[in-house]
Amino acid sequence: MGFKLVGGFPDSFTVEAPVTAGVAIAEGDALDISGNVLQRATASSTIHTLFGVAAQTITTAATTILVRPVCQGQVYQGDMKNNTHATNQIFESAIFEDHDSIDNTGTDVTGPTGIWLMLSPIGAVGDKKCLGEFTRLQSTST
C-alpha cells in the first residue's frame, strides 16, 4: 500500500504534475522531484527532494499524475521494512527503503535522508505499519 494520508489535510488536496516517462506508479507511492518531473522515491531521496504521495495509479504511458503534496501537519500511515515495536523507533527519523516503505532500523538518521518521523506503531509487531509524518526542508534545520 505504501503511504496513506490519515490526518491534516483532506484526501482531495491534490495537484497534477509531470512524471518521469516510462515508469508505472501506484497510489500511495512516495514521490520526489528530479529536475522538473516527479519520480518514485528511493533510499537516496532527501528532505530537499521529497514532493508528495501519489493519489492515483498510473501506467508507463502516463505523462502526469495526481499527487498529494507533503506539508507540515499531515499524518500518514506508512509501511515499514522491519517489525514495529521491535526496537526503540518512536520519535526517531528514518530513511526510505524504497518508494512504498520506510527502513525502520531503530537508528536515528540525522542527515537529509532522515525523511520519516515515526509517531506510533499500528497493530501487532508483525504488521509493519505505523503512523508518522514526512520531514521536509521547511520543518528541519538540516
Structure, explained:
- With about 140 residues, this protein is an all-beta fold.
- It has a 6-stranded antiparallel β-sheet, with no helix packed on it.
- About 35% of the residues are buried.
- It is about 0% helix and about 40% strand.
- The mean pLDDT is about 85.
Give the biggest beta sheet: 6 strands, antiparallel
Number of helical elements: 0
> What does the average pLDDT come to?
87
Strand content: 35-45%
Low-confidence stretches: none
Shape: globular
Number of strands: 11
Q: Give the helix level as a range of percent.
A: under 10%
Characteristics:
single chain, 142 residues, 6-stranded antiparallel beta sheet, 5-stranded antiparallel beta sheet, 11 strands
Produce the secondary structure layout.
Blueprint: E1 3-7, E2 15-18, E3 30-34, E4 37-40, E5 50-54, E6 64-69, E7 75-79, E8 93-98, E9 101-103, E10 116-122, E11 129-134
Antiparallel strand pairs: 1-7, 2-6, 3-4, 3-5, 5-6, 7-11, 8-9, 8-10, 10-11
